[in-house]
Amino acid sequence: MDSALLQITERVRAAVAHQTPLRLRGGGSKDFHARALAGEVLDTRALQGVVSYEPSELVVTARAGTSLAELQTLLAGNGQCLAFDPPHFSSGATVGGMVAAGLSGPARASVGAVRDYVLGVEILNGRAELLRFGGQVMKNVAGYDVSRLMAGAWGTLGLITEVSLKVLPQAPGEATLRFECTQAQALQWLNTWGGQPLPLNASCWLEDAGRGTLFLRLRGAQAAVQSACASLGGERQDNARVAADWDACRDHQLPWFNDRLARPDLALWRLSVPAQAPMLALPEGAIGPLLEWHGALRWVQAPRALGPALQALAAQVGGTAQMFHAEGTVSATPAQTAPGPMQPALAALQARLQQAFDPAGIFNPGRLQPLA
């Protein structure tokens, strides 16, 4: 055990002995996403570096504090990528934080989520025990897949120290098409295209000054992308220029997201619904939506007080609504921030998992906010 891991282990052991809550933190790029950040900060950035990388095997193993940007640069140098397009939100994003948050970018609806690419993890549990789950190949699980359970647990089940990820080759062909259309037309097209053999990768629809625009990203074989461009129509965009726009969409840096900064009364709400769900009649005072994931992810700007109305609206179509980002420390009531009442069976399972992994409840108390 190296000195960095030893120091962190001793810190966890002392926290267990004194029942001291710990706030696990990498680069802090997702500090905004919490009801309240409590506990002594335990910085994981000392756990640096890529442990192993086998481009021919499509797998990379990195320590939790490794910079996400540095890892993606390494992969890009070998013509590979993290296909789920993880958001950064700031330059400090780390590999461990990426897995703990379980958030995926615009390509998620087409290629899968973070958890689908987690092959194995090493964690410190709430007893300061160093445990390994999974491995470095896809078929390595006998029984419950604990490694993927860590994706989206927000550190409440253990401190991730190392993670092995499946990587994929970068697509040889790419194109972004632009269409002027209404939200209803965009949803109809996306549902129709989703049932066709098209190399769909990502989509984004938003309205600006009363005019709706759909951006559709295609990725795959060159021939497939060219054929799709010919059949779908639209206005083809310059790949070099539009790449920055897709990154801005991923990291919530588009003007649509930044406009909220002038309105501190507005929070950013994340509505996760079936892709086939129709347009939602947003309550008065809400702005949006911005659509991603071919209609399955809908961002809305609205005051916190509209939370119950948004949750009820999403529930009507079989989805959930959750406050994702609000200026300052989130101190809203659980009814405003949680995705809705959890089913008793799921609540019982979650309680049992937390009892098994962190019986003293020292890791990120109050941080867990399940995302769809």
Description:
The chain is built from 12 helices and 17 strands. The protein is an alpha+beta fold and 372 residues long. It folds into 3 domains: 3-169, Uridine Diphospho-n-acetylenolpyruvylglucosamine Reductase, domain 3, CATH 3.30.465; 173-251, Alpha-Beta Plaits; 256-337, Alpha-Beta Plaits (2-Layer Sandwich), CATH 3.30.70. The strands form 4 sheets. The protein has an 8-stranded antiparallel sheet with strand order 13-10-12-11-15-16-14-17, sandwiched between helices. A 5-stranded antiparallel sheet has the order 3-4-8-6-7. A two-stranded parallel sheet has the order 1-2. The longest helix has 16 residues, at 3-18. The two termini are 36 Å apart.
Brief overview:
Helix content is 29%, strand content 26%.
What is the CATH class designation of the largest domain? Alpha Beta
Listing every helix as H and every strand as E from the N terminus to the C terminus, the arrangement reads: HEEEEHEHHEEHEEEHEEHEHHEEEHEHH
What's the story with the biggest beta sheet? Answer: 8 strands, antiparallel
Strands in their spatial order, largest beta sheet:
13-10-12-11-15-16-14-17
| Proportion of beta-strand residues | 25-35%
What is the strand tally? 17
Quickly give the CATH architecture of the largest domain.
Answer: 2-Layer Sandwich
The tally of helices reads 12
* Low-confidence spans: 329-339
Termini Cα gap? 36 Å
Structural class: alpha+beta
Please, how many domains? 3
Shape assignment: globular
Rg over CA atoms: 21 Å
Q: How confident is the prediction overall: mean pLDDT?
A: 90
